[in-house]
Specification:
The chain is mainly alpha-helical. It is built from 3 helices and no strands. The chain has a single domain, classed as Non-ribosomal Peptide Synthetase Peptidyl Carrier Protein, Chain A. It is globular, with a radius of gyration of 12 Å. This is Acyl carrier protein.
Length: 92
């Protein structure tokens, strides 16, 4: 799977898992997952991390350990973590 295709799939999973009233085109790679009072993110709380992580692990057959703190900064960093995990899995 190409990285751009994977980015779209990650955005679709976020929208579906969190029941967001958005479309993929509304989410930029730079969109923060956790926001501030000035710039809200897509995640309301840490439960969102568990829900999205579980959905991604199931969809891509990857290990939860592939995620770290940087994975949950932006939509792009989350997609990068998934892409790297998928690529490493394919090399095994």
């Amino acid at each position: 799977m190409k990285q751009q295709e994977l980015n779209v799939k990650v955005k679709e999973i976020i929208i579906e898992t969190l029941n967001l009233n958005m479309e993929v085109k509304d989410i930029l790679d730079e969109t923060p997952l956790f926001g501030t009072s000035y710039k809200p993110g897509l995640f309301d709380n840490s439960l969102c991390v568990l829900e999205v992580t579980s959905a991604l692990v199931g969809e891509f057959d990857i290990e939860p350990s592939c995620f770290d703190n940087k994975s949950f900064e932006t939509v792009g960093s989350l997609a990068d973590s998934v892409y790297n995990a998928v690529e490493n899995k394919d090399k095994e």
